[in-house]
Design goal:
- InterPro entries: Acyl-CoA_DS (IPR015876).
- This is Fatty acid desaturase domain-containing protein.
- Belongs to the fatty acid desaturase type 1 family.
- It is found in: Membrane.
- Its cofactor is Fe(2+).
- By secondary structure, the protein is mostly helical.
- It folds into 2 domains: 30-179, no CATH class; 185-268, no CATH class.
- Helices cover 57% and strands 0% of the residues.
- The chain is built from 14 helices and no strands.
- The protein has helices at 5-14, 33-55, 59-85, 93-105, 111-123, 138-142, 152-158, 164-167, 170-178, 185-190, 197-202, 218-228, 240-250, 260-267.
- Helix 3 crosses helix 4 (93-105) and helix 3 (59-85) crosses helix 5 (111-123).
- It starts with a helix and ends with a helix.
Length: 270
């Protein structure tokens, strides 16, 4: 009889903690200022939210807030923690999809990263490989670990933890790939062509803000129409060759909206 993969994972997580040597020299904490600013804002917003809760919020708002609190919490506790990190039970596809959705509401990274860090935490508890090593102090274990760069041991040991079970779960893979979307067709439709975020940040001076010509880009049509009448001019755009070269160098190889017609149409400066 072949070994049970889930049992192997549980045994791996509950085995005696490996004896790994501590770093000879203490690695200084490197602050991630983006996270510091974000967490400061979130806590200030929470204080303001408490004021609104007491003095202004309506009953239905309070009920809805509590419902979201419970659902997002379940996305972490029942989802990322007990289901995916520890495999302590199994869930059918509809429940896994639901847990992945409410997990995203908790704003605690995607399931794969959460589960990987938690497995590392159990396997290398209270060592430099522990993401929230309690030996580095109360504040660090509580939230300081979220405000600093990961210790090198956390990164190296994280690569050694078996995550094949999560990679085999399509729900986890889809959430991991799409939890921070930068391209969204509906956003482009609703914002008249402003949803081509990857391209715009790569070539911010391009008037079309997209390599797809008029496709889902009413603003480009508007500017081009005025250009035809001579009232808009000096329209800046990036040659197709440069776009393709940058895509091959920095992209992931996928071109979900691509076809030669739209790209050729774009380079002709319609």
């Amino acid at each position: 009889m072949s070994p049970n993969k889930d049992v192997m994972i549980v045994e791996d997580l509950t085995a005696d903690k490996p004896m790994i040597p501590e770093s000879k020299e203490a690695v200084p904490m490197r602050i991630v200022w983006r996270n510091v600013v974000l967490f400061t804002y979130l806590h200030l917003a929470a204080v303001y939210g408490l004021y609104l809760l007491i003095f202004q919020a309506k009953t239905l708002t309070l009920v809805w807030t509590y419902v979201l609190y419970i659902l997002s919490g379940m996305g972490i506790t029942a989802g990322a923690h007990r289901l995916w990190a520890h495999r302590s039970y199994k869930a059918r596809l509809p429940l896994r999809i639901f847990l992945a959705l409410v997990n995203a509401m908790a704003f605690q990274n995607h399931i794969y990263e959460w589960s990987r860090d938690h497995r590392v935490h159990h396997k290398f508890s209270e060592t430099d490989a522990d993401p929230h090593n309690a030996k580095r102090g109360f504040f660090f274990a509580h939230m300081g670990w979220l405000l600093t760069k990961k210790h090198p041991d956390v990164r190296s040991k994280g690569k050694s933890v078996d995550m094949s079970d999560l990679l085999a779960d399509p729900v986890v893979r889809i959430q991991k790939k799409n939890i921070n979307p930068s391209e969204n067709k509906m956003v482009s439709v609703c914002t008249l062509g402003e949803g081509h975020h990857n391209y715009h940040h790569t070539f911010p001076w391009d008037y079309s803000a997209s390599e797809w010509g008029w496709r889902i880009n009413m603003t480009s049509m508007f500017i081009d129409a005025w250009a035809k009448m001579g009232l808009a001019y000096d329209l800046k755009h990036v040659p197709k060759e440069i776009v393709v070269k940058r895509r091959e160098h920095n992209g992931d190889g996928s071109t979900p909206w691509y076809d030669e017609t739209s790209c050729e149409q774009y380079t002709k400066g319609l």
